[in-house]
Write a structure and sequence with these properties.
The complex is a heterodimer of chains A (227) and B (167).
Chain A: E1 15-18, E2 21-24, H1 25-46, H2 55-75, H3 83-99, H4 112-134, H5 136-141, H6 150-186, H7 190-222
Antiparallel strand pairs in A: 1-2
Helix pairs in contact in A: 1-2, 1-3, 2-7, 3-7, 4-6, 4-7, 6-7
Chain B: H1 7-139, H2 143-160
Classes of the chains: A mainly alpha (227), B mainly alpha (167).
Chain lengths: 227, 167
């Protein structure tokens, strides 16, 4: 294993080479840290589940039930199977976005590999589930509707989905981290603190947007078509 | 800045791993807890509703019983009063008849006594008359002295109060 680069530079990753693959090792560390935090929260919340919730359980339950309601609304009853994925997506992105706000850490979502990876995974699931649900032929047919030439627009749309999904999140989080450092250089302490507070908000919003869009993309392939 | 490499695949694997772990250790127990709670709340509400209905039923029952008891008590009181009235009538009737009987007996007694007295008197009067007559005959006086004699005798009779009975 070999680490490249040095110092804290925005957008420059420490690289590791493993069995012919190149890995951004810092992103992976931060991802594992995020996973660990999410798991610890989940562990704290579910350590002693009781009928009357309190503390962590209450918090997690609130988030989970709110998301379940959204899933029920957008995907219908068949969305329940995807609920763990959606909930995990939200929790992971939320913690990942916030992680970069702690000095010395970077958000895993400030690396395009993370966001594009997740977006591609979602889009792949959309197509696979759509094909399984509606039958391959019917699924492919709907790209040619209402007229055959629309296939071009439809394909562009499908290609745009993962790109917009991933770049929106990546851009917001990266910009947030860049701004913290730049504002810190210009007006130390006061302005970066304000921006930090705002970034907490941005972190929630971006995690929510990514989750909601994934949900609505998945909803189309899970739901039965009525047209 | 935008360099894609194997990290992309690694992140997908990481994420799916997290999904699997969370599903197993957090999501399923949490869903179970939620379902349990829902069941418990539904159960509690059900029980409460049942108990409420039961309480209402009991209340109605008690009210009915109370009403019944009141009616019964009233009936008992009425009956007792009627009985008392009847007894009173009976006692009065008895007293009245007893009274009448006693009165009748007394009257009979009086009548009998009177009869007896009269008989007695009559006998005595006869005897006295005989005595007076014999005296008159014995003296053989004139009419005036005879009358005086009889009057004296009668006077004497009154003074002696022979018999002492009312005539």
């Amino acid at each position: 294993m070999e680490h490249g680069g040095g110092g804290h530079e925005i957008g420059v990753h420490k690289l590791a080479h493993l069995a012919g693959f190149t890995l951004n090792i810092d992103t992976l560390y931060m991802t594992w840290l995020t996973m660990a935090i999410v798991l610890v929260i989940a562990f704290l919340a579910t350590r002693s589940l009781s009928i009357v919730p309190g503390g962590w359980q209450n918090m997690l339950e609130m988030a989970v039930t709110a998301l379940l309601e959204q899933i029920e609304n957008t995907m219908g009853p068949r969305g329940a199977k995807l609920a763990p994925l959606i909930i995990t997506l939200f929790l992971f992105l939320l913690i990942a976005n916030w992680l970069g706000l702690i000095p010395g850490f970077t958000s895993p979502t400030a690396d395009l590999n993370t966001t594009l990876g997740l977006a591609l995974m979602v889009i792949l699931m959309v197509h696979v589930l759509g094909a399984v649900n509606k039958g391959l032929f019917n699924y492919l047919k709907h790209f040619f509707q209402p007229y055959a030439p629309f296939v071009i627009i439809n394909i562009i749309e499908e290609l745009a989905k993962p790109i917009t999904l991933s770049f929106r999140l990546f851009g917001n989080i990266l910009a947030g981290e860049v701004l913290i450092i730049i504002l810190g250089l210009l007006v130390p302490y006061f302005v970066p603190t304000l921006w930090l507070g705002f970034s907490v908000f941005v972190g929630i919003i971006q995690a929510f947007i990514f989750t909601m869009l994934s949900m609505s993309y998945l909803a189309n392939s899970v739901k039965n078509d009525h047209h | 800045m935008i360099d894609l490499n194997a990290t992309l695949i690694a992140q997908i694997i990481n994420f799916l791993l997290l999904v699997a772990l969370l599903t197993k250790f957090a999501y399923k127990p949490l869903m179970k807890a939620l379902a349990d709670r829902q069941a418990k709340i539904a159960d509690s509400l059900n029980t409460a509703e049942q108990e409420r209905a039961e309480a209402a039923k009991l209340k109605l029952e008690y009210q009915q019983q109370l009403l019944e008891a009141r009616t019964q008590a009233q009936a008992i009181v009425d009956k007792a009063m009627r009985l008392a009235e009847q007894t009173k009538e009976e006692i009065l009737e008895e007293a009245r008849s007893e009274n009448a009987r006693l009165l009748k007996t007394a009257q009979e007694e009086i009548a009998r006594e009177r009869e007896y007295a009269l008989t007695q008197l009559r006998t005595e009067v006869v005897a006295l008359s005989m005595a007076a007559a014999s005296k008159i005959i014995g003296q053989n006086m004139d009419t005036a002295s005879n009358a005086k004699l009889v009057a004296d005798f009668i006077e004497q009779l009154d003074e002696q109060k022979v018999g002492g009975l009312p005539c």
